[in-house]
């Protein structure tokens, strides 16, 4: 394992684990709302993250891809790839809008400030960051991850051991009082992995393309995927253990932190802002890169306009946007998963055929 593998893993995790995950709202709607069986869903998603992350990173490294479009065209062909790229770009823009709404919810819940304040603050931070070069953006996103990891581990560990209701009661409350993205836990798990792969795909493809060692890129994808699975599992258990005290809350993990200590709640709010920031940067970067070359004046103008329009759209509310945009993006992501799986099967078949020819020749 080398430095490149670790950087890919951390960047992969940071882009996927944004405000929706860190706030607990994603996990609540995709896993916890199904009750105990939601734990099985987190395992399904974690394994999918590892496999898909490995394939995307390895493919882009072999191609030395400069853009996710190159990988898309390789998977789907030029015509269908273009269609998928356009649809994906606009859904990623929707995730960026959700992040701006999430920033507003953090400041409203923690500091009793108008949601617009948090949205405007995040808009300014994202616009400034997108004026930097690509490598600095990737370094910033990777640096945020250890901070959030420590916070999630502290809060979930405490929450798991401090539950105050029978498991049967918690299971009933989780299933009866929370909205889920689907009527079936397995479909919910597939949708979660699907939409997050769609979210992480553009940045993961770019990072993988910057790595000249396909094996190292693949290891980074696997590590990042497994790390995501562990974090989802821990947060899901922590939310489930306290689900009877989290009804109607926009930022469940922030509420859990407040139960431990007011100071920890403040620190967690800062961690949430950091993760909302990292995902917002990744999403608006991917969207703007679809229309302009990064680091050019046109790119900066496109980014500024896109983020400002996103601020206006974010006024629809965080939890409502999570429950609407993310499942729809999940269905789009299914096309990506099928194409990646087909590419993997085709690659293995070609390798076996080549090995058979070599064995026959010898």
List keywords for this structure.
about 350 residues, Amino acid/polyamine transporter I, about 85% helix
Radius of gyration: 20 Å
Low-pLDDT parts are none
Q: What's the helical proportion of residues?
A: over 70%
Number of alpha- plus pi-helical segments: 15
What is the correct CATH architecture?
Up-down Bundle
- The counted number of beta strands is 0
Beta content comes to under 5%
Helix-strand blueprint:
Blueprint: H1 3-16, H2 19-23, H3 25-30, H4 38-63, H5 68-76, H6 78-111, H7 115-129, H8 134-161, H9 167-177, H10 185-209, H11 214-241, H12 252-260, H13 262-289, H14 297-313, H15 318-361
Helix pairs in contact: 1-8, 1-10, 1-11, 4-10, 4-11, 5-6, 6-7, 6-13, 6-14, 6-15, 7-13, 7-14, 8-11, 8-12, 8-13, 10-15, 12-13, 13-14
Transmembrane segments: 34-54, 75-101, 113-132, 144-165, 185-207, 219-243, 263-287, 299-319, 325-345
Organism: Pseudomonas lundensis
Keywords: Membrane, Transmembrane, Transmembrane helix
Describe the protein in words.
Helix content is 83%, strand content 0%. The protein is mainly alpha-helical. The chain has one domain: Amino acid/polyamine transporter I.
How would you sum up this structure in a few lines?
With 362 residues, the chain is mainly α.
